[in-house]
Structures are given as structure tokens and as C-alpha cells.
Amino acid sequence: MDEGNSIIYGLEHQTRALSPQYESDAIRFLIGTQSLKPHSNQVHVVELEEDTGALHTKVFKHDIGEIWHLRCSPHDVATLLTTHNSYDPETSQCTMGVSIFKLPTVEVIPKDLDDLSAIQGRNAEEMEHLKTISPEKPEEEIRCAEWHPTDVNRIGIVYENSVIVHDVNTGAALASASPEGKSRLKFTGGKWNPHQGHCQFAVLQDMHIKCYDTRTDCSKPAWSIDNAHRQLARDLDFNPNRQFHLASAGDDAALNIWDYRNGKEPIFSRTDHSHWVWTVRYNTYHEQLLLTGSSDARALLTAAASICDMDEDGRRLSQVLEDGVLQSYEQHEDSVYCAEWSAAEPWTFASLSYDARLVLSRVPRHFKYKILL
């Protein structure tokens, strides 16, 4: 794929769920659709052939309902979980749930022309349904579900008013965290802290960020960042290389980076978007590179180099990039709900908008060489 040309993949139904596939040498992303039509939702596996820039896809059925959130397992390349909403015509009610599936194969690129014609003529395939976890109250909303970073048998599910760690095999609740008293401020999302022994789960609660220790049931956060945004906080991501740094994004159009040991003020802040920011992601290898996606129909590649020019021992490193937007990607025509880095290739990323458009792009070569050289 040429660095200056993004590749666009269009789907039939609206989309807001995207995940890179882990534990693979291929550049693969999984997309979940959000159609209101019964038995019409799908999971698309999209693989980029790096040498030629060709896209290869496989499509799987997701008849259980519209997909609001999707995460591939970091432990098994063929396993994924979806947060979904399904409509029951008998009760006229919608019920959310989290389901775990296994793909029948992870191979996407055909080995010869005969395979290619067979794939192109094939309808959506079935996934193996392993487990569905439903809320105790059928009307309760589920915001997202995240695999535990190291324990293959655990997932954290963010509900409206609590975070519950579930056993993947039985669905049983192993630990829970919820605020003291009856808070009117609902949880809107969350993520495992990859540091601190993999026992902390951070959640977004209105404008705030709260992090709970999941080793026991608890009501008080281990740490918090109050008023992380002036309006609703939409997403967060932990710096993979620095254990106390995380980035957040919100409806105030801001990208903020925090040292949560002192969360009074962000250590880095940008407001380059013109509308709500739905997603923020650190590059796995190069922490000064961040992706954001917004309702202004843009994905931005931003450098936060000034706070990454010190090593863990406090020694100053050379700052190779200037802070600010490196590139704006404007191939979308609707809200960009997701942006994800490839798990296999650190310079490639994907952005996904509600108008069923996936855009695959690369970090411009001159920025890449500045970082590497």
C-alpha cells in the first residue's frame, strides 16, 4: 500500500465496531455491523496484502443482533467477543448481551485462483457460538466487554452502573465494582489497565475516569481523574510503555493525556477536532503517535512527542517530532466511531465510520523515518 493512498472498504450495513486481530502476522481487522433488520448482521474479516495493497475479506453471520462493540481475543487468534443488542418480536423488547464466538478458520487470502472464485461466490459463513452472557436485568444496557490482558478465562463487562468480571466458560460473575450509593452518572465505557498486575479496570463515568481493583468486590476506586473532560468522556487508552500514562477523548473535542498519579491537570491536551471525539488509541510501539476519530468525520494522527522525550529514569531523549496533528484523514462522510492500529504492523491503521466505510492508512513515510532514524 502506497503511504499517500488510503484503501477504502465498503460494507452493506452501518458500522460502529472494529478490532484488530491479535497473535497474527497478517494485517487483519474485524468489523461488526449494526443493522436493525433481523438476521442481517455480520462480522467482516478484512486482510490487507501489504505487498500489493489488495484487500481480502471473509464474512460471517451474526444473527444474534446488531453489534455495538467487538474485541478479538489477545490469547487466541480465532476467538472474539461481541457486545450486541437483539430485538424480541414476542415481547417487543431489546436485550443486550455479550457473546463469544470462534471463527472456523483464520485464513483469508486465497492460495490460488480456484480458491478465490470459491470465496467470491460464497455466502456468509457460520461462526461457532461458545457462550452468551446476559445482564441480570433484561433492560440493563451493556457498554462494552474487554478481554483480560493475561487471563484467558476472564472478561470485564461494563454495564450502566457497574463493572463485572465474568468467567468466560461459565459466565459466572467473579468480582464487581460499582460506585457507592445510587449515582445518576452512568458508566459509558472502560478498559483494563495493562500495568499494575492486570487487576485494575478503568471506567468512564460521565466526565470522569474511575479505576477499580477487580481482585475483590469494591465501591471505592483505586484512583480517579475527576472532570477529565468538560463534557462526556467517550474513550480512554493506556500508554503501553509508561505505566502511569493514559489518553482520554470526549465530547469537548479534546484529546487529553494524563499521569494518573496527579490527575488535576492533563500533561498534554489538544482540541484539533471540531466535534465529539469517540475514540483514542496509542500506537503499540511508538507512544508519541496517537489516533483519534470524531463526529467531524475525520481521523487524526497526532504526535505527543514532548511528553515522550524522557525515559523511565528521567533521562531526556531527543524529540524527533513536533507536537500536533501530523495528518488528517478525511475519506469518511459520517462519524468516525473507531480507529485501531494493526497488531501486526506498527505503521498501518484502520478507521471506521457509521456510513459503513473502513479506511486503511499508513503513517507517512517521512514521519516514520524521523522516528526510526
UniProtKB/TrEMBL annotation:
<dbReference type="InterPro" id="IPR040323">
    <property type="entry name" value="EIPR1"/>
</dbReference>
<dbReference type="Pfam" id="PF23609">
    <property type="entry name" value="Beta-prop_EIPR1"/>
</dbReference>
<dbReference type="InterPro" id="IPR015943">
    <property type="entry name" value="WD40/YVTN_repeat-like_dom_sf"/>
</dbReference>
<dbReference type="GO" id="GO:0016567">
    <property type="term" value="P:protein ubiquitination"/>
</dbReference>
<keyword id="KW-0853">WD repeat</keyword>
<dbReference type="InterPro" id="IPR059104">
    <property type="entry name" value="Beta-prop_EIPR1-like"/>
</dbReference>
<keyword id="KW-0677">Repeat</keyword>
<dbReference type="InterPro" id="IPR001680">
    <property type="entry name" value="WD40_rpt"/>
</dbReference>
<feature type="repeat" description="WD">
    <location>
        <begin position="226"/>
        <end position="268"/>
    </location>
</feature>
<dbReference type="InterPro" id="IPR036322">
    <property type="entry name" value="WD40_repeat_dom_sf"/>
</dbReference>
<comment type="similarity">
    <text>Belongs to the WD repeat EIPR1 family.</text>
</comment>
<feature type="domain" description="EIPR1-like beta-propeller">
    <location>
        <begin position="5"/>
        <end position="297"/>
    </location>
</feature>
<protein>
    <recommendedName>
        <fullName>EIPR1-like beta-propeller domain-containing protein</fullName>
    </recommendedName>
</protein>
